[in-house]
Write a structure and sequence with these properties.
alpha/beta, 226 residues, 8-stranded mixed β-sheet, single chain, 12% helix, globular
C-alpha cells in the first residue's frame, strides 16, 4: 500500500484521513506542518513529522496538500516541488460516494469529498478541493487550486479560475466565469462574470465594495474560507 503524507494538520486533513481509512487506498504515515506548537504532536493517529521543509526526507512517498486556501495550497506545492516532489507524487483522494462521469477529467492532487457529482465532461485542474455535496454539471472547467465549499452548485459550462473560492451553498448560472483568485460568498447566487481577485456576495451576487454598511446589530454573511 502506498505511503501518504498529509500537508497541514487541518480540518481538511482530518476529512482526508477519514476517506483514506475507509478506502484503504494509502497508509498515512504522518503530517507536515509549519506550526511550531504542533511539532512532535499527533493529529488523531497521524504524527507530525516536521515542517514542509522536511519533505525531502521522504523521497519515495506521496503527498496530499490539505490547506483550505487555494493560494495556500499553491504556495505549499511550490515548496514541495522545490524539494524534488514531482507531480506524479501528489495523491488524488476521492470519497467512494462521489459520482464521476467517464468523460470527466480530474487533475493530480485533488480532494473530492462525500457526495460530489461530476455529471458530464467536467474538467478539474490540479489540487482542486470539492467539499461534500458539490455538483458540477456538463462542461464545467475548474482551474488549479480552486476551492468549492460544501453544497456548491455550478450550471453548465461554468469556468472557475485558478485559486478561486466558491463559498458554501452558493450557486452559479450556466456559462458564467469566476476569475482567478476571486471569492464568491456563502449562499450567493452568481448571475454574471465575477472578475479576478474580487469578492462578491448576496442574491444576486454583487461586489462587496458596492454594499452599504450594515446597521448596528444586523447579522451579515461573510465570505471566509472553510
Amino acid at each position: 500500500m502506498t505511503r501518504l503524507i498529509l500537508v497541514a494538520a487541518s480540518g481538511l486533513a482530518r476529512e482526508v484521513l477519514a476517506v483514506v481509512a475507509g478506502t484503504r487506498s494509502h497508509t498515512v504515515i504522518g503530517v507536515l506542518d509549519d506550526a511550531p506548537n504542533l511539532q512532535r504532536t499527533r493529529m488523531q493517529e497521524a504524527p507530525v513529522l516536521g515542517t514542509l521543509d522536511d519533505a525531502g526526507l521522504f523521497p519515495a512517498d506521496e503527498f496530499i496538500v490539505c490547506i483550505g486556501s487555494g493560494r495556500g495550497r499553491e504556495s505549499a506545492v511550490a515548496r514541495l516541488r522545490a524539494q524534488g516532489v514531482s507531480e506524479d507524487r501528489f495523491a488524488t483522494i476521492v470519497e467512494p460516494s462521489a459520482r464521476i462521469s467517464a468523460d470527466s477529467v480530474i487533475g493530480t492532487g485533488c480532494i473530492l469529498l462525500a457526495g460530489v457529482v461530476l455529471t458530464a465532461s467536467v474538467t478539474l485542474g490540479s489540487h482542486v478541493v470539492a467539499m461534500p455535496q458539490v455538483v458540477l454539471t456538463h462542461d464545467d472547467v475548474v482551474g488549479d487550486y480552486a476551492t468549492l465549499a460544501a453544497g456548491v452548485r455550478l450550471g453548465g459550462a461554468v469556468h472557475v479560475g485558478d485559486a478561486a473560492y466558491v463559498g458554501m451553498g452558493s450557486t452559479v448560472r450556466q456559462h458564467v466565469r469566476i476569475g482567478r483568485g476571486a471569492t464568491l460568498g456563502m449562499s450567493a447566487a452568481l448571475l454574471e462574470d465575477l472578475p479576478a481577485g474580487e469578492t462578491w456576495v448576496g442574491v444576486p451576487a454583487r461586489p462587496v465594495s458596492t454594499l452599504r454598511p450594515a446597521a448596528p446589530g444586523t447579522p451579515s454573511f461573510v465570505a471566509g474560507a472553510s
